[in-house]
Design brief:
CATH architecture of the largest domain: 3-Layer(aba) Sandwich
Number of domains: 2
Helix content: 25-40%
Structural class: alpha/beta
CATH superfamily of the largest domain: TPP-binding domain
Shape: elongated
Strand content: 15-25%
Number of helices: 10
Bound molecules: nicotinamide-adenine-dinucleotide
Radius of gyration: 19 Å
Strand order of the largest sheet: 3-2-1-7-8-9
Order of helices and strands: HEHHHHHEHEEEEHEHEEH
Length: 252
């Protein structure tokens, strides 16, 4: 799929002129890093149906079973590296054009790419939390030889991520709503925008007057009523082209 050069130019101008730019990212931005999203074909989700494994009820009922999936996901995450989409966002932040990234991902790839202000809406796979005493552990300090891993108090450890059925971490939720509520431009990248309440953030931004621009391989439920326009294509291709265009405008 070729990149629409006119839309890239229009978006680059919008990035340069907006009072504040915020990116909302979903699993699609990490697909080119080798981490499959929920919807595309293949990989880990053929073996583990997310609806069966990614709910807090499933975890509480059978942590050993869910940990088998988490362990496999974990080794995938350990191998993955940021792709040009993550890197371009980090560069836009460094240049002063991007204020923050609100991500639904738990893969730490924005931070690995150098993004400084990352709001982890669905928590992080880098830390584990005890279901009994809430003690936190760094992922590396916990051995996964026997599943489920346990706390020194013998409570089951859970990755500090938001399973379906769990609330959004209070601080991240508040911050993300604030970012959405006072930005001038929101880039919505690689999300199908069906997981609530993350999918409400573009509507919050739009209601507050922001322009919403989607970057996705395909249209989503936002495209028709919420987004001003969509840049169709892979996130790495589009964001790299956008970065190059912003740099070119700056030089001209
Ligand atoms: P999703 O799987 O529902 O949708 C992914 C979206 O990305 C789709 O609209 C798809 O068209 C688009 N997409 C796929 N590849 C793309 C590419 N190369 N370039 C641009 N767009 C691309 O993901 P979601 O909306 O984020 O919701 C699923 C939930 O599961 C979220 O909480 C998500 O973060 C989580 N999850 C996270 C990871 C991760 O941390 N990397 C992986 C899988 C799921």
């Amino acid at each position: 799929m070729g990149v629409d050069k006119d839309l890239i130019k229009k978006t680059a101008q919008a990035i340069r002129h907006a009072k504040k730019v915020v990116a909302l990212t979903g699993a699609g931005i990490s697909v080119e890093s080798g981490i499959p999203d929920f919807r595309g074909p293949a990989g880990i989700w053929e073996k583990f149906d997310p609806m069966e494994y990614a709910t807090i009820e499933a975890f509480s009922a059978n942590p050993k079973k869910v940990w088998a999936m988490l362990k496999e996901m974990g080794s995938l995450l350990e191998k993955s590296k940021p792709n040009p989409a993550h890197i371009s966002l980090a560069k836009l932040e460094e240049m002063g054009y991007l204020h923050s990234v609100v991500t639904q991902n738990i893969d730490n790839l924005h931070q690995a790419a150098g993004s400084k202000r990352v709001i982890e809406f669905h928590g992080s796979g880098q830390r584990l939390i005890c279901m009994i005493c809430s003690r936190m552990y760094e992922r590396q300090e916990v051995k996964l030889d026997t599943l489920p891993p346990r706390c020194s108090c013998n409570g089951v450890l859970k990755p500090n991520i938001v399973f379906f059925g769990e609330p959004i971490p209070w601080g991240a939720h508040l911050e993300a709503r604030e970012e959405a509520g006072n930005c001038g431009l929101m880039l919505v990248i690689g999300t199908s925008a069906v997981v609530s309440p993350a999918c409400d953030l573009p509507a919050i931004a739009k209601r507050a007057g922001a322009t919403i621009v989607e970057i996705n391989l395909e249209e989503t439920q936002l495209t028709r009523y919420i987004s001003a326009w969509i840049l169709k294509g892979s996130a790495s291709l589009i964001l790299h082209a956008l970065l190059m265009e912003v740099v070119a405008i700056e030089k001209s």
